[in-house]
Amino acid sequence: MKTLLIIPTYNEVENLPPLLKEIFDYAPETDILIVDDNSPDGTGKLADRISAENARVHVMHRAGKLGLGTAYIAGFKYAVAQGYDAAFEMDADFSHDPCYLPDFLRAIERADLVIGSRYIAGGSTPNWSPVRRFISGGGNIFARFMLGIPIHDCTAGYRCYRRQVLESIDLDTIQSQGYAFQIEMAYRTWKQSFKIVETPIIFKDRRVGKSKMSRKIVIEGFLYVIRTRLGSGKKPGSSPASLGNKATSTSTTQEQPSDSKQPAHAQDLTEESPSIRH
Fold first, then answer.
1. Which of 88, 120, 122, 193 to pair with 53, CA 20 to 30 A apart?
2. What order do you get walking across the sheet with 113-117 strand by strand?
3. Main-chain phi, psi angles of 114, to 5 degrees
4. Cα–Cα distance between 149 and 115 in angstroms, integer?
5. 7 occurs within a structural domain
6. In this structure, is the dihedral angle defined by the CA atoms of residues 213, 218, 220 and 224, taken in order, positive or negative?
7. Largest CA distance in the chain
8. pTM for this structure?
9. Is residue 165 within 8 Å of residue 189, measured between CB atoms?
10. CATH classification of the domain holding 34
């Protein structure tokens, strides 16, 4: 399976070299796309130097800090245009440990979306404060209850999508960022009856640098759930045929193999991208 690991960066110059080394230790055959938002600390220039030495590392340069959601959308479009079978989301700060990549790669062979979950057996957040656990855990319970979505960790940002999922979602209609982006992508995937699997991860805080989490991101996630729940129930970008039997989400220890979904209509995602170095 041809896979692409998308890593948005903004001021991650200290994390990037050791992170890439660990990624290739655990997944030597994957490709990497670094989406840099014109980092003042020179992360983008460092990524270019690494790319010049390693053909598996690609770099997309954007004009400024445009947000996590738009970085992943740009990466998803690149993955589809370049013919990758699956695309990962991964943070650049080591909170998403590369040691779990083999688990993801095994799981995506029999699923359409694999989510690294903190809230199933084997998952945890060992160095979080009680307040942060309450906000994250409570937010996920709230989203599951309000949306009826059978996913334990809707806000998780460590995940892998099959190409068919990305082709079936109208990526240009997704406007969310942060928590809301992850919830919206998971919700749309589920509403189109794709197979979702959760695999346990231990989530640790970043090793170097400052967290980019904010109150605004948390509020946006809450408001997205409320707006979606109060809406008509028909998800933007979905076709009537996609609203049949809903997919279920279970841990990787419970799922059985099944055929991959085929999209009803593949979006044209080959539009011109920001500056990209191969």
1. 88
2. 249-251, 196-200, 113-117, 159-162, 86-89, 3-9, 31-36, 57-61, 275-277
3. -115, 125
4. 14
5. yes
6. positive
7. 51
8. 0.80
9. yes
10. 3.90.550.10
Structure confidence by residue, pLDDT tens digits, 229-269: 788 444 444 333 333 333 445 555 434 334 443 333 322 32
Task: Indicate if the pLDDT at residue 85 is higher than 90.
Answer: yes
**Structural domain for 45, as ranges:** 3-256
The answer to whether the CB of 86 falls within 8 A of the CB of 3 is: yes
Distance between CA atoms of residues 128 and 99, nearest Å: 20
What DSSP line would sit under the chain, residue for residue? --EEEEEEESS-TTTHHHHHHHHHHH-TT-EEEEEE---TTSHHHHHHHHHHH-TTEEEEE-SS---HHHHHHHHHHHHHHTT-SEEEE--SSSSS-GGGHHHHHHHGGG-SEEEEESSSTT-B-TT--HHHHHHHHHHHHHHHHHH----S-TT---EEEEHHHHHHS-GGG----HHHHHHHHHHHHHHTT--EEEEE-B----SSS-----HHHHHHHHHHHHHHHHS-SPPTT--GGGGSSPP-EEETTT----PPP--SS-----SPPSEEE-
Q: Is residue 267 part of a domain?
A: no
Q: Total domain count for the chain?
A: 1
Straight-line distance from the first to the last Cα atom of the chain, in angstroms, rounded to the nearest whole number: 20
Whether residue 269 lies inside any domain: the answer is: no
Q: For the segment 51-79, what is each residue's pLDDT rounded down to a tens digit?
A: 999 999 999 999 999 989 999 999 999 99
* 270 within domain boundaries: no
Amino acid code (one letter) for 171: L
